Amino acid sequence: MELHKIETNGETLTLIINGDLDADGSRSAQPQIDDVITNRSHNDVKVDFRNVQFLDPSGVGALVYLYKRLVEKQRNMRIEHVSGQPLEIISLLRIDKAIPVNSHD
């Protein structure tokens, strides 16, 4: 899994995830996730799931960790372009009730 950071404007940072958000992917992305949390230059963080085919409990944990830390700092997060198995997991666990989700089919 790869995590790319794209600054779309001065307020928004887009995190593009390429690959599965599983135990290995979550572990490798942790330093970048921590960097997003500590770098306060963006109030809004979008997590782009268009290239994610698989989400497991470790990936869910990484998303919730990122969301909770951003909210603590009065920042916003949303998940974009989620579909397939990741959308099923997000809906089943009702993550979409806490974190804004923009899905596509």
List the helices and strands and how they pair.
Elements: E1 2-7, E2 12-18, H1 23-38, E3 44-51, H2 57-72, E4 76-82, H3 84-92, E5 101-103
Helix pairs in contact: 1-2
Number of domains: 1
Content-based structural category: alpha/beta
Q: Which range does the strand content fall in?
A: 25-35%
Name the average pLDDT: 93
Q: Going across the major beta sheet, what is the strand order?
A: 1-2-3-4-5
CATH class descriptor name: Alpha Beta
What is the CATH third-level topology name? Transcription Regulator spoIIAA
Q: Rg to the nearest angstrom?
A: 12 Å
Q: Provide the CATH superfamily.
A: STAS domain
What global shape is seen? globular
Helical content band? 25-40%
Describe the protein in words.
This protein has 105 residues and is an alpha/beta fold. It has one domain: STAS domain (Transcription Regulator spoIIAA, 2-Layer Sandwich). 39% of the residues lie in helices and 30% in strands. It has three helices and five strands; from the N terminus they run ββαβαβαβ. Strands 1-2-3-4-5 form a five-stranded mixed sheet. The model has no long low-confidence stretch (mean pLDDT 93).
